[in-house]
Amino acid sequence: MTHRPPQEQAATARAMGHVAYQHCETCGARAAFLRVLCPVCGSTDLTVHHSAGRGVVYSTTTLRTREGARDVSLIDLDEGVRVMGTVAGVPPEDVAIGLPVQGALDPEGGDEPRVIFTVERDG
Amino acid sequence: MADPLRAAVAIAGVGDAGIGEAPPGSRPLDLIGTATVAALADAGLTTRDVDGLFTASAYYGMPNLNVGEYLGIRPRFSDSTNLGGASFLSHVGHAAAAITAGLCEVALIVYGSTQRSDGGRLKSVAEAFPDEQLYAPRYPITQYALAAARHMHEFGTTREQLAEVAVAARAWARLNPDAFARDELSIDDVLGSRMLCDPLTVRDCCLVTDGAGAVVVTSTERARTLRRPPAVVLGFGEAHWHRNISQMADLTVTAATDSGARAFAMAGLGPADVDVLQLYDAFTINPILFLEDLGFCAKGEGGPFVAGGRIAPGGALPVNTNGGGLSYCHPGMYGIFTLIEATRQLRGEAGDRQVPDAQVALAHGNGAVLSAQSTVLLAADAAA
Ligand SMILES: [Zn+2]
């Protein structure tokens, strides 16, 4: 099986506003940090998928800098993988662990596309 | 059967240099040299006796070559294992293996930094991880803040309990004339200081200082013939599970669960046997996590455990008796100073901060973003 380099696949997903993850066809383990092997069992029988972007905040902090305060969070996606992200649309202090969120392409991402998260109001 | 590495080697000498603010113009290698001279003099040895060299650095890509050249040491065994701040505790274990295998006889473990004189910027070997870099976490405080926030969420740990760790460290530092930060500090002071990365304020974070430390390790047999009483290495263990915080499976459980279990198993000891602890406190959440993961209290109980001055002078469990990274010094990587203070406590030479009759000490190092954990158990010769 030939694969494109993992970081290229991750970048492709990102440009579409998606988080890519790998699924191990041998043991079922998943990881959002794309690699050439499964970090659980070592298998190279992997498939790459795009997450639907729904998840919950696993942990969160407000980083205070001279430019202002902004959120940095870890998001547990419904597909069972964790990613770093930022929750936009609410004051960073209001981002709480357990909050349901939805990821999408950052409209202000510029030439470095990234996924950002907004609070899912209807849960 | 006892582990053949149990009590095989001992710390025979310790030294430090440039703690706080180094003499103007000093380079890291100058501090490393001064700390080395002090540690070797402490042991009654010279650079000519050293045949094993252990160091790690954020300044030098091939630090053993720079340090070996500067000190005039031509080692026959050389190790630059870099696990961040945990490196130097791992070096003790690696030195024990090398000495026991006959690959070297006198090991020098040394580290130095001029981080404060450099302008306070953390000299870091951290490389960008694209999956995280897009969100510009401020390395490493953001990562530790995420761990603290999760611990608070799962177990009800409070900011006051985090502050207890900083206040205890400061109270110890006030007994240590060499500590960099010795002003009075209260829980309210910590809570009211500038918030950097919620829930961590500037007083929940370690100092930014200069400093160097050196430790001389040799066989316990030889150490008994040297100048100072040996601090016998009863056990050690190391473990690392991740590099990037998004890859840490559970932000409330560190690999200290493994490193500590390995060290205690080798030593044939348990937490109840430990008289004094030196736990790498880069941030106030760290000692709470390590007290849990090393078995001094149950998971989740670290916050209540440190409350009420329990780890402060006069408390039931003395932790970070030099003042720790929070109040003694923190020159980029702090791990080596846990070994130096543990040794001074076991020798009974810690002055006003001396823990009475300290026989067994635990030193614990942490590297990167709760990534690497390394534990060393030391004992006075009579208790070994
Ligand atoms: Zn697998």
What would your notes on this structure say?
The complex is a heterodimer of chains A (123) and B (384). With 123 residues, chain A is mainly beta. Chain A folds into two domains: 6-51; 54-119, OB fold (Dihydrolipoamide Acetyltransferase, E2P). In chain A, 8% of the residues lie in helices and 41% in strands. Chain A has a six-stranded mixed beta sheet with strand order 6-5-4-8-9-7, with no helix packed on it. A three-stranded antiparallel beta sheet of chain A has the order 2-1-3. The radius of gyration of chain A is 15 Å and the shape is globular. The N and C termini of chain A lie far apart (39 Å). Chain B has helices spanning 28-43, 63-71, 87-100, 130-133, 141-155, 159-173, 187-192, 220-223, 256-267, 285-293, 302-306, 324-327, 335-347, and strands spanning 9-20, 52-55, 77-79, 106-113, 195-197, 200-201, 210-219, 231-240, 276-279, 360-367, 372-380. Chain B starts with 8 loop residues before the first strand and ends with a strand. Chain B has two domains: 9-119 and 210-228, Thiolase/Chalcone synthase (Peroxisomal Thiolase, Chain A, domain 1), CATH 3.40.47.10; 140-202 and 235-383, Peroxisomal Thiolase, Chain A, domain 1. Chain B contains 13 helices and eleven strands. In chain B, α1 packs across α2. With 384 residues, chain B is α/β, with parallel strands linked by helices. The interface between A and B is medium-sized, with 27 and 25 residues. The structure holds zinc ion. Zinc ion binds at residues 24, 26-27, 29, 38, 40-41, 43 of chain A.
